[in-house]
Structure formats: C-alpha cells, structure tokens
Amino acid sequence: MTSHPSRPVADLFSADGRLKAIPRKPARREALLAHLTETLFEAVREYREPEINEALLTVHEDFSALRRYLVIGGFLGRTKDGSAYRRQQPGSPGGAIPAVA
Q1: How many Cβ atoms are within 10 Å of 20's Cβ, its own excluded?
Q2: What is the mean pLDDT of the chain?
Q3: What backbone phi and psi angles, to 5 degrees, belong to 2?
Q4: Mind giving me the DSSP string for 26-92?
Q5: Can you give the pLDDT at residue 92?
Q6: Minimal CA–CA distance to 49: which of 20, 29, 71?
Q7: How far apart are CA 5 and CA 72, in angstroms?
Q8: Stretch 72-85: mean pLDDT, rounded?
Q9: Across the beta sheet with 76-78, what order do the strands follow?
Q10: Spatial separation of the C-alpha atoms in residues 20 and 90, rounded to whole Å
C-alpha cells in the first residue's frame, strides 16, 4: 500500500456515475478499489456473492473482475467456500475470512 495520497478517482466515472473503465495501472486501480469498498460496502456487514455482484454492477458491467480485484487486493475477504464476503483492511493476507459458524 502506498503512503502518499492517490489522485482522486472522480475522473474514472462518467456523468451518470458509471465507471468508464477499470484502470490498468495498479496504483489507480487500488485507489478505485478503496473508493468502491468505502462507498458500496458497510464495514461490519457480511455479504453474499449475489449482493456483491449487484452492488458492483451499479458501477460497471464487469462485476466479476471488480470482485476478483477486491478479494485479491485484500479489500474484501471471503470464506473458503466463497459463500460470504466482508470488508477488511487492504493488504490483509490471504483474502479469506474465517468460516462463520
């Protein structure tokens, strides 16, 4: 994770609030993922995959790529069976949250 502030992500969105494209540059993509995590997902709530997909679909049609980037980047953790997701601190190891009993 970078220690300097990143460029605002507003220029990545069109006037209707949709994402123009998923940035290729890692730093820009990380800034976007942080923004999406903050704006789309509550910190203490558990989400099912369809809820994650629906939220991401509001900003871009390739919701599966965004979901994958969020998990790989450590913004969202998921249970080993993939049934539940939860917001977490970026860079958390493994991208997995413990299974819920």
Answers
A1: 10
A2: 85
A3: -85, 150
A4: HHHHHHHHHHHHHHHS-TT-EE-HHHHHHHHHTT-S-HHHHHHHHHHTTSEEE-TTSS-EEE--TT-
A5: 55
A6: 71
A7: 21
A8: 93
A9: 46-47, 85-87, 76-78
A10: 23
